C-alpha cells in the first residue's frame, strides 16, 4: 500500500517515473494532465474549458481540477493506494487534497520531488519528441515560470509535513526509478 504524490517541474520525467513506479507497486497512476488531454481530445465540456489554459501553459482553474480529483479518488481501485502525478500544483490544491484525504480517512505517505536544473528541462522539452501541443518554446517558458511561482512552494509544504523525498532527476531513467523505489519503500 502506498499513496504518493509526484512533484517536479515540466520535463523532469515525472509522468514516466510515476507510471513505472505505479506498475511496480500495482497501484493506479492518476495524472491530471493525462485526464485533461483525453478530455480535450474527446471535446468534452471539461476539455473545451481546459484547452485554452493548457495551450498557454497556464494552470487550469482549480474548480475543474478539484472535481476531477474528487471523482477519481472515489473509485474503488484506489483502495490499494495511488500515485498522483501533476496534482497538487499549488498550495490551494494541496490544502484541498489534505481535506479530501482526511474525509476519506487516508493520508499521503510521501511527496516525491524530482530535481532537474531549468536549462536541462528546456533542452529535454524542446528535443524530447513527446509531440505535445504545449512543448513549444514560448509555452515551455510559461510552464516553467508557472511551476516556480505556483508549484515549487509545495516542496516546503511537504517538507514541513515530513513527507518530502527529493530525488536527483538528472541521471539515467533507470537510476531515478531505482532511487525512488528504494526511498519510498525504505
Ligand atoms: P502535465 O501533463 O502534468 O504537464 O499537465 C499538462 C497541463 O495540464 C498543465 O500545463 C496544466 O495546464 C494542466 N494541468 C495538469 N494538472 C493540473 C493541475 N493539478 N492544476 C491545474 N492545471 C493542471
Structure description:
The protein is α/β, with parallel strands linked by helices and 186 residues long. It has nine helices and five strands; from the N terminus they run E-H-E-H-H-H-E-H-E-H-H-H-E-H. It has a five-stranded parallel β-sheet, sandwiched between helices. The chain starts with a strand and ends with a helix. The relative contact order is 0.21. The structure holds adenosine monophosphate.
Give a quick summary of the entry:
The protein is an alpha/beta fold and 186 residues long.
Which secondary structure elements does this structure contain, and how are they paired or packed?
Layout: E1 2-7, H1 14-25, E2 29-31, H2 32-41, H3 45-56, H4 62-72, E3 81-85, H5 91-103, E4 110-115, H6 118-127, H7 137-151, H8 153-160, E5 164-168, H9 173-185
Helix pairs in contact: 2-3, 6-7
The structure holds adenosine monophosphate.
Strand content: 5-15%
Mean pLDDT: 96
Q: What is the helix/strand order?
A: EHEHHHEHEHHHEH
Main β-sheet, spatial strand arrangement: 2-3-1-4-5
Q: What fraction, in percent, of the residue positions are helical? A: 55-70%
Dominant shape: globular
Tally of alpha and pi helices? 9
**Uncertain segments of ≥5 residues (pLDDT<50)?**
none
Major β-sheet profile? 5 strands, parallel
Rg? 16 Å
Which cofactors or ions or other ligands sit in this model? adenosine monophosphate
Structural class: alpha/beta
Number of strands: 5
Q: Termini separation (Å)?
A: 13 Å
Keywords:
single chain; 186 residues; alpha/beta; five-stranded parallel β-sheet; 56% helix; 13% strand; binds adenosine monophosphate
Amino acid at each position: 500500500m502506498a499513496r504518493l504524490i509526484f512533484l517536479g517541474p515540466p520535463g523532469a520525467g515525472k509522468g514516466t517515473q510515476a507510471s513505472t513506479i505505479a506498475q511496480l507497486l500495482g497501484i493506479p497512476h492518476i495524472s491530471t494532465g493525462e485526464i485533461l488531454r483525453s478530455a480535450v481530445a474527446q471535446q468534452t465540456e471539461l476539455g473545451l474549458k481546459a484547452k485554452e489554459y493548457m495551450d498557454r501553459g497556464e494552470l487550469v482553474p482549480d474548480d475543474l481540477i478539484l472535481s476531477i480529483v474528487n471523482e477519481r479518488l472515489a473509485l474503488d481501485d484506489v483502495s490499494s493506494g495511488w500515485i498522483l502525478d501533476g496534482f497538487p500544483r499549488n498550495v490551494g490544491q494541496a490544502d484541498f487534497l489534505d481535506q479530501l484525504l482526511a474525509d476519506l480517512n487516508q493520508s499521503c505517505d510521501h511527496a516525491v520531488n524530482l530535481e532537474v536544473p531549468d536549462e536541462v528541462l528546456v533542452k529535454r522539452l524542446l528535443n524530447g519528441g513527446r509531440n505535445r501541443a504545449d512543448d513549444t518554446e514560448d509555452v515551455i517558458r510559461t510552464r516553467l515560470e508557472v511551476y516556480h511561482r505556483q508549484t515549487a512552494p509545495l516542496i516546503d509544504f511537504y517538507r514541513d509535513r515530513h513527507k518530502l523525498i527529493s530525488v536527483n532527476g538528472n541521471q539515467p531513467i533507470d537510476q531515478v526509478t531505482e532511487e525512488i523505489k528504494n526511498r519510498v519503500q525504505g
